[in-house]
TrEMBL record:
Protein name: Erythroid membrane-associated protein-like
Domain B30.2/SPRY: 37-230
PROSITE patterns linked to this entry: B302_SPRY
SUPFAM superfamilies: Concanavalin A-like lectins/glucanases
Coiled-coil stretches: 3-44
InterPro entries, alphabetized: B30.2/SPRY, B30.2/SPRY_sf, Butyrophylin_SPRY, ConA-like_dom_sf, PRY, SPRY_dom, TRIM/RBCC
UniProt keyword annotations, A-Z: Coiled coil
Keyword Transcription regulation in record: no
Length: 230
């Protein structure tokens, strides 16, 4: 009799253990889902915060290299087949296909997006207003030279010293750039899936301007107006 009761108790205990194990698995799954939802919500809130600092950036034709073709609204740029005959301007890049944004930032937070599409050779970021614009500068883009930028040229690269190669699981069609002047950060994002790409940290003391460079003839870099963002 005692043996039968012991066997029954053992079976009942085993059943309870199985139920507890199943409940524990369900609880772990629920916790994982809640964690994912929390991270997603946090990312969405952070994204909305950046949108609160959105600015409409335009290209400064006075700084554009003569081989670059700018759209009439100064929001799109691509490299042309020939070099245009433009008047001399000491503010113009004279060797590499670069152009600055009209806007200058000495404080605050600012966010803008650039559609890169299927372009294969470009650089984006910010730079000091005082950067050198004469001679070959494309191979010396770095914070030490006053540039905080990322590049696509075969691989995605943050132009640190030495460069930092970025392993991206998703190829961005639109790159978001967020400058927080007081915090000393320049951050890059894949605006398609809202993922973070890279952040520079530096103490800024001079005026900063949006920086663009492209070697693509067919695919332009296009600054998205705030009204076009979703």
């Amino acid at each position: 009799m005692d043996f039968k009761r012991l066997t029954a108790d053992k079976k009942d205990l085993s059943a309870q253990v199985e139920r507890l194990s199943a409940d524990n698995i369900k609880l772990s799954t629920d916790n994982a889902k809640l964690s994912e939802e929390f991270e997603s919500l946090s990312a969405e809130l952070e994204w909305r915060r950046r949108y609160g600092y959105a600015v409409n950036v335009t290209l400064d034709p006075e700084t554009a290299h003569p081989c670059l073709i700018l759209s009439q609204d100064w929001r799109s740029v691509r490299r042309g087949d020939t070099t245009q005959n433009l008047p001399y301007n000491p503010e113009r890049f004279d060797t590499d296909p670069c152009v600055l944004g009209c806007e200058g930032f000495t404080s605050g937070s600012h966010y803008w997006e650039v559609e890169v599409g299927d372009g294969a050779d470009w650089r984006l970021g910010v730079c000091k207003d005082s950067v050198r614009k004469t001679g070959k500068i494309i191979r010396s883009l770095s914070p030490e030279e006053g540039y905080w930028a990322m590049r696509l040229m075969g691989d995605y690269t943050a132009l640190t010293s030495p460069p930092t190669w970025l392993r991206l699981s998703v190829t961005p069609q639109i790159v978001g750039i967020f400058l927080d002047y007081e915090a000393g950060t320049v951050s890059f994002y894949n605006a398609d899936d809202k993922s973070h790409l890279f952040t520079f940290i530096h103490t800024f003391t001079e005026k900063l301007r949006p920086f663009f460079c492209t070697y693509d003839i067919e695919v332009p870099l296009r600054i998205l107006p705030v009204a076009a963002w979703k």
